[in-house]
Design brief:
This protein is α/β, with parallel strands linked by helices. It has a single domain, classed as pyruvate-formate lyase- activating enzyme (Alpha-Beta Horseshoe). It is built from eleven helices and 14 strands. It has a seven-stranded parallel beta sheet, covered by helices on one side. It has a five-stranded mixed beta sheet with strand order 2-1-3-6-5, with helices on one face. It has a two-stranded antiparallel ribbon with strand order 12-13. β12 and β13 form a beta hairpin. The longest helix is centred in the last third of the chain and has 18 residues. The radius of gyration is 20 Å and the shape is globular. The mean pLDDT is about 95. It catalyses: (5R)-5,6-dihydro-5-(thymidin-7-yl)thymidine in DNA = a thymidine dimer in DNA. InterPro entries: rSAM, rSAM_sf, SPL, SPL_Bacilli, SPL_firmicutes. This is Spore photoproduct lyase. Its cofactor is [4Fe-4S] cluster; S-adenosyl-L-methionine.
Length: about 350
């Protein structure tokens, strides 16, 4: 059973203590008797304990850094939204395939930012620029924000902020089931709450440190009952022995957990497994025993937008994955919308 994340070690940027949330978190961690250290910047945390890379990496993943987000220029987001909104960076999960492993590089620790009102003000400016068009913000591009929110309640604050917005919407995705504190947030239907789900084989072998599928689905049921629009990301879609049956079972379980009402407005996003050469090196270093299939010869190379190519499945395999998953979605959730397959 995955318990809510509690850091083993916490660093504070001195500037973070000038914000109410920074002070509140410091008091909270002192009461919990967690070791507190200080760092000049959330980007410069050095001397983490550990005798070798393996130990240092695992300690980093249980270290929380409380800082101030100085850059309030938001990145344009993935296909799911116009902008990424930065409340946190890093994740306590240990998903072998995760792209954060390469983007985080030498900083796998978790960062949370306490200047929440400044971040929300910046979001409002982006919304005003595009109004009356809708502007969607993705809060989980560089983190699993739900995984840390039971400590910070930043996400809850953001949900309520967007609940009052006329032209702004929020969305995020999680692999954790610790959602109870978010159920009474005044979201006004303006936040789409998404869960990342997968076949049991993928979760068991490649997603240690995250909630099991049944817990995620149970949480999705609660979220739907709290009136949130709901979505599911099936990622990475991974070919393994019995994958057809594995993904079918996943859809069956999902169907059992959702009320008829929740099925009226569902979105799905399908992302096939992919990796880059740098990612492969990092994955093999961080998870030397992984069973993850990373054989370039069996994949096709697809050039990326930013000049970094990735290895994805062959055309016929990709088509089979797409057809199979789409047919399951149609069978169990005929009213759902597929936002993209990539």
């Amino acid at each position: 059973m995955v318990k809510p994340f509690i850091p083993q070690l916490v660093y504070f940027e001195p500037g973070a203590l000038e914000y109410p949330l920074g002070k509140e978190l410091k008091e909270k961690f002192e009461k919990m008797d967690i070791e507190i250290r200080y760092t000049t910047s959330h980007n410069q945390v050095r001397n983490l304990p550990g005798d070798n890379h393996f130990q240092k990496y695992r300690i980093a993943k249980s270290t929380l850094v409380v800082g101030v987000r100085k850059t309030l220029k938001f990145d344009t987001s993935k296909p799911s939204a116009e902008y990424a909104i930065p409340f946190a960076t890093g994740c306590m999960g240990h998903c072998h395939y995760c792209y954060l492993q390469t983007t985080m590089g030498s900083k796998p620790y978790i960062r949370t930012y306490v200047n929440v009102e400044e971040i929300l003000e910046a979001a409002d400016k982006y919304i005003a620029e595009r109004a009356p068009e809708m502007t969607r913000f993705e809060a989980a591009c560089t983190s699993d924000i739900v995984g840390v929110d039971h400590l910070t309640h930043t996400l809850k604050r953001a949900i309520e902020h967007f609940g009052e917005s006329e032209h702004g919407k929020l969305r995020f995705v999680t692999k954790f089931h610790h959602v109870d504190h978010l159920l009474d947030a005044k979201h006004n239907g303006r936040t789409r709450f998404r869960f990342s789900i997968n076949a049991d084989y993928v979760i068991k072998n490649f997603e240690p440190g995250t909630s099991p599928l049944d817990k995620r689905l149970e949480a999705a049921g609660k979220v739907a009952r709290a009136g949130y629009p709901l979505g599911f990301i099936v990622a990475p879609i991974y070919i393994h022995e019995g994958w057809e049956e594995g993904y079918r079972k996943m859809f069956e379980h999902l169907n059992q957990h959702l009320s008829q009402e929740a099925k009226e407005d569902l979105t799905f996003e399908f992302i096939q497994h992919r990796f880059t050469k740098p990612a492969k090196r990092v994955i093999e270093k961080n998870y030397p025993m992984t069973k993850l299939e990373l054989n370039e010869e069996e994949r096709r190379y697809k050039w990326g937008k930013y000049g970094i190519g990735k290895y994805i499945y062959q055309k016929d395999e990709e088509q089979e994955l797409k057809d199979r998953l789409y047919s399951y979605m149609e069978e169990f959730f005929p009213k759902a919308q597929l936002e993209y397959f990539t």
